């Protein structure tokens, strides 16, 4: 069982990573954001900044992947909710808080192997959630994985565009495009099934 203090550190770290990336967040800022003494940070994470970042990034991926898998079987609604969530988050934070996985992946994630690996795992967890939904809807696993990876990549790219342009338009545009792509892909599956002997 994760302690309340440890959970607060992970949540605060995810917020700082979303805003500043890996190199941009420090333990003093983390202590303030979590509302915990500096020494408490090292008590829960003796590995310091790197261990905290890995834990926060991995936890984000697991949480989002689980939310996607546990959503009602509507892949369109689930994808739209993901894009709408980020549009609201960016607007609420003045276009400063991006994705707790995507931002550190761009800022420092490649420099530190454990952080890079955590980003890979988090992206994979997100894609896996969508792939499972698509497979349940009749898509072949390989095709489902490819389409799910496309949705996650489009989401991250749209997040970057929205953040730098300071408008949610890219997120809404890409969300609509992804819904169209999913619909066409599922229609191809249905057509193939109808034509099979």
What is the end-to-end distance? 53 Å
Strand proportion, as a percent range, falls in under 5%
- Give the topology string: H per helix, E per strand: HHHHHHHHH
Helical content band: over 70%
What is the C-alpha radius of gyration, as a whole number of Å?
18 Å
Mean pLDDT: 91
Taken together, the total number of domains comes to 1
Largest sheet: none
Number of strands: 0
Spans with pLDDT under 50 lasting ≥5 residues?
Answer: none
Domain HTH tetR-type: 3-63
DNA-binding region: 26-45
GO molecular function, one term: DNA binding
Keywords: DNA-binding, Transcription, Transcription regulation
List the helices and strands and how they pair.
Layout: H1 4-24, H2 27-34, H3 38-44, H4 48-70, H5 75-92, H6 102-106, H7 113-136, H8 141-165, H9 169-195
DNA-binding region: 26-45
Organism: Nocardia terrae
Domain HTH tetR-type: 3-63
């Amino acid at each position: 069982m994760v302690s309340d203090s440890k959970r607060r550190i992970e949540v605060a770290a995810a917020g700082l990573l979303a805003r500043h990336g890996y190199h941009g967040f420090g333990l003093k800022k983390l202590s303030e954001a979590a509302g915990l003494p500096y020494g408490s940070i090292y008590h829960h994470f003796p590995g310091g900044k790197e261990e905290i970042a890995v834990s926060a990034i991995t936890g984000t991926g697991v949480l989002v992947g689980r939310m996607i898998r546990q959503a009602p079987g509507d892949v369109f609604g689930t994808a739209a909710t993901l894009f709408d969530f980020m549009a609201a988050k960016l607007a609420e934070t003045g276009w400063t808080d991006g994705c707790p996985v995507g931002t550190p992946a761009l800022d420092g994630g490649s420099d530190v192997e454990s952080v890079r690996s955590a980003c890979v795992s988090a992206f994979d967890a997100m894609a896996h959630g969508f792939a499972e939904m698509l497979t349940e809807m009749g898509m072949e696993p390989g095709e489902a994985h490819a389409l799910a990876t496309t949705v996650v990549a489009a989401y991250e790219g749209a997040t970057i565009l929205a953040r730098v342009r300071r408008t949610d338009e890219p997120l809404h545009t890409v969300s609509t495009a992804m819904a169209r792509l999913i619909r066409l892909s599922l229609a191809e599956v249905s057509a193939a099934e109808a034509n099979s002997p």
